[in-house]
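Database export, one record per block. Field names are fixed; values are copied verbatim from the stored entry.
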Amino acid sequence: MCIETKYIYLRSHPLFSELNEIQLAEISTLVKVHTAYRGESVDYGDGDFSKIYFVVKGKIKIAEANEMGEELIKDILTEGDFFGNLSLCDNASLDEYAEALTANSIVCGFKVSDFRKILQNNPMMALNYLNKVSGKLRKLENRHADLVFRDAKARLIRFIKNWALTDGSRIGNKIVLNNYLTHTDIAGCISTSRQSVNVLFNELRDSGMLYYNRKRIELNDSRVWN
């Protein structure tokens, strides 16, 4: 892929947006761009080939499987987010994996060793990166609190609210979501069963809070979901 295209992709990502043209052009020589189809895994690599990725298009699922093969979805990423070896340590051990949820998802990947050098040469970018990683940790803390203090229905409503906030489109008095998640995916996000998610969605639909099908979810009163 040509350097100009890599430059455009990196420029569109918020972590790189404040770099000047010369800095961004230099970084563009180090990045690898990958277009993933729906359901395709994105390899984190290991050791000297460990990687960090930046999402410029599409949706990415970050998940982990237990010993029985059950999937726990740790995060759903959209444009502007990042994943991979976030600790930037060459010997990091990662049990999680990434999978594209939408067709033609585009990610920009750096070797961790290269990305460390980029941060060393750009202190403000390093600070911005640290702030974003801290935000991810707070998100995990909130999720843990939800599992302790909220029942499955409250967790589902909170999940949908966050989904609407990051990925929803307001149309009149509704918020519309493109439904790229299965009930199994959502169950993995809120730590319950697919059957429970199905029952809870039906309850929310019957109460008039939302309408859903395989392609979209409509939140009927945007004031309720804000």
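Remark 1: The first helix runs from residue 3 to 12.
Remark 2: The chain is about 40% helix and 25% strand.
End of record.
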